[in-house]
């Protein structure tokens, strides 16, 4: 039982765990294999029997605390930390540092949720009306909102709808709290953009689990958005030309460096003007077909050279480094790459007879 319990704890928290022993690392099968768990324990402790007894005691404490609902969440986390420490592991605090806004017109609910969430390490703010929430959310940008449905004035549904229509707040996950437990209200909550719906009276342990799950999803989404913004900044400000093209030969994206090198006023001017890359850009249209064939066969190309037209009709030589981009199922989506002007290199080669 102790072995299974610990493996389940490790498995549930694996994405948040780090090793306290850098040389030991974090084995990927630690939450699935009893052997891996035992091997880690023996490598860390000389007296395995003693540490095993300690773990039995901690697991029993953990089981007892879990039966008490949400009242002892702080103590529960402390026991979990002690169990993990026996394996030289600790849980990072990224989730618990999140900002949560509780919006409810019932003082008892506000007090209960604020106290419980604060004990978990969350930064908690509370409001008692929908009207006050709209401006507050925009200014404070919480990581998650717990929103009561039935409130005087602006109810929870309207608050959610208006927040989801605002580009500044539409990304924030909203978890509804309601004493109404019928299907129509739940469907309405999800249709308006809510991520979850918890009925009152609720079990604190369940609410905490749902909050933690939604925060993990939110953080993953936030990281993806930030990575996308980083790439966008890199793409737009790169010194060398960069592009993305459709499979049938139109520009999806182009940066300023490429537009300028080809003599266009802006990336949008290039995208709008060139409707057929093979015929309008390449001086020998068949080179585009060769480029596409090579990418489809090998996935990428490092030094594909071609002569192309500029907007004013001038000709330059370019070297393309590109790759074929596929989705998770392996379907070809588009081509992307960089462009280097090698006109001067070609001129020197011609002079030298290379």
Radius of gyration: 29 Å
What is the residue-mean pLDDT, rounded to a whole number?
A: 88
Q: What is the CATH class designation of the largest domain?
A: Alpha Beta
Structural class: alpha/beta
SS element count, helices: 14
Proportion in β-strands: 15-25%
Strands of the biggest beta sheet: in what spatial order?
A: 4-3-5-6-7
Q: Identify low-pLDDT runs.
A: none
H-E string:
HEHHHEEHEHEHEHEHEEHHHHEEEH
Gross CATH architecture of the largest domain: 3-Layer(aba) Sandwich
Number of domains: 3
In the CATH hierarchy, what is the superfamily of the largest domain?
Response regulator
The number of E-state strands comes to 12
Helix % is 40-55%
Distance between the termini: 76 Å
Morphology call = flat
Specify the biggest β-sheet: 5 strands, parallel
Description:
This protein is flat. It has 354 residues and is α/β, with parallel strands linked by helices. The termini are far apart. The longest helix has 34 residues, at 204-237. α6 packs parallel to α7 (156-165). The strands form three sheets. Strands 4-3-5-6-7 form a five-stranded parallel sheet, with helices on both faces. The chain has a five-stranded antiparallel sheet with strand order 9-8-12-11-10. Helices cover 49% and strands 20% of the residues. β5 (144-148), α7 and β6 form a beta-alpha-beta unit.
């Amino acid at each position: 039982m102790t072995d299974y319990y610990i493996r389940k704890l490790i498995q549930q928290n694996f994405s948040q765990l780090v090793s306290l022993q850098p040389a030991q690392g974090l084995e990927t099968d630690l939450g699935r294999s009893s052997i891996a768990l035992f091997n880690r324990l023996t490598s860390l402790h000389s007296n395995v029997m003693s540490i095993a007894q300690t773990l039995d005691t901690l697991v029993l404490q953990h089981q007892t605390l879990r039966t008490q609902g949400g009242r002892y969440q702080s103590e529960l986390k402390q026991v979990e930390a002690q169990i993990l420490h026996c394996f030289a592991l600790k849980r990072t605090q990224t989730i618990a540092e999140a900002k949560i806004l509780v919006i409810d017109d019932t003082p008892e609910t506000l007090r209960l949720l604020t106290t419980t969430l604060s004990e978990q390490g969350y930064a908690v703010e509370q409001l008692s009306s929908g009207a006050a929430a709209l401006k507050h959310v925009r200014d404070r940008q919480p990581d998650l909102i717990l929103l009561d449905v039935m409130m005087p004035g602006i109810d929870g549904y309207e608050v959610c709808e208006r927040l989801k229509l605002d580009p500044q707040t539409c990304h924030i996950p909203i978890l509804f709290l309601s004493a109404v437990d019928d299907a129509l209200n739940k469907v309405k909550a999800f249709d308006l953009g809510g991520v979850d719906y918890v009925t009152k009276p609720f079990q604190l342990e369940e609410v905490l689990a749902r909050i933690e799950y939604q925060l993990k999803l939110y953080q993953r989404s936030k990281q993806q958005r930030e990575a996308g913004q980083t790439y966008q900044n890199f793409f737009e400000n790169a010194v060398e030309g960069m592009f993305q093209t459709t499979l049938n030969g139109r520009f999806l994206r182009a940066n300023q460096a490429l537009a300028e090198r080809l003599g266009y006023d802006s990336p949008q001017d290039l995208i709008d003007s060139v409707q057929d890359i093979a015929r309008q850009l390449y001086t020998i249209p068949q080179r585009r077909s060769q480029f596409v064939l090579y990418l489809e066969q090998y996935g990428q190309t490092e030094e594909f050279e071609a002569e192309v037209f500029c907007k004013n009709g001038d000709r330059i030589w370019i070297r393309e480094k590109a790759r074929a981009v596929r989705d998770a199922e392996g379907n070809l989506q588009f081509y992307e790459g960089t462009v280097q002007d090698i006109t001067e290199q070609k001129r020197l080669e011609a002079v030298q007879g290379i």
